[in-house]
Design brief:
This protein is mostly beta strands and about 190 residues long. It folds into two domains: about 30 residues; about 140 residues, Immunoglobulin-like (Sandwich), CATH 2.60.40. It has one helix and twelve strands. The strands form two sheets. Strands 1, 2, 3, 5, 6, 9 and 12 form a seven-stranded mixed sheet that branches. A hairpin with a 5-residue loop joins strand 5 and strand 6. It is elongated. The termini are far apart. This is Electron transfer DM13. InterPro entries: DM13_domain. Pfam families: DM13 (PF10517).
Amino acid sequence: MSDSSQSTHQATPRRRRRWPWIVGGLGAALVIALAVGAVLFQPWLIFVDNEVDDEIPVAATAPVTPGQTPPAGPVQLSSGSLISHEHSTSGEVSVIEKPDGTRILAIRELDTTTGPDVHVWLSDGEVKEGVGGWRTAANADNVDLGPIKGNKGNQVYEIPAHVDLARYPAVFLWCVRFSVSFGAATLTPTA
């Protein structure tokens, strides 16, 4: 074979295709973002109901005048109605003192949305209707009575003995993770 019949064609460097790597990287980032979002927001909770049926003691109202004899059983010291904030919320709250002097917060007929990290707070935050009330407890003094037991039904929470109820005239169902109120009630002393 002569040199003239040989190809003088030089091999050109093969160009790598980058788009599969870019698409793969974007896909992986999307999967990670969705996983993190699911862990933080727990969107499936909106479809889950957790009903609680704690026994709430039947309580008489507190004596009207200091001279009256207190009732022998549990006494209702204050009460209020929950209003909606970030999520539709309803129910009745009351502070009850048992004959042994211990106090409880009772929530009757609670109906709200299940959410991540929702707690029951006694608070000195102002209870306001609408969006303006969603975050009033954020910078207030609060007593955390614990995580909410469920989003529906009757619930009872122990109030620590050292708590001065006069300092905390409100109840908030507070989402700690997102610093927002699901609902709140002003506690009015029972007369």
